[in-house]
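Revision sheet: structure tokens.
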Amino acid sequence: MNQKFLLTLVLISFASISVCAADALDEKQFQKLMKEVGKVAKEFKANLDAKNADAVTKDSTRVGEIYAQMTGFWKSRNLDDAVKWSNESSAAAAATATAAKAQDWDKTKQHWNAVMKNCKSCHDARREKLDDGSYRIK
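Predicted:
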């Protein structure tokens, strides 16, 4: 019985390590996701102005998923402010999707503005522009 317990404990430990490692993005994956958010952000106003509920719902849902993934990235770096902004952005993006689905355009805009406010806060605190015009994480 002790061997079964020990084997189970070892398997659970390895599974936990694998799940934690899978949750943390590397910097290249992180940058790819940030570019995806940037693309959505550029298209958002046109979709909002057109009252395209399907596009706004789809895009804001995706942004919420991305920010949920970013939480692990920031946690692995012990940056509580960025974790907070990622969590808040994920929730605000989900609220954006819900409002768009209901075609409540004022709330859609309000929730999306909260996402963008967090983007700015995080960029100001955690992003540095390099001489060649590219960016890196501080």
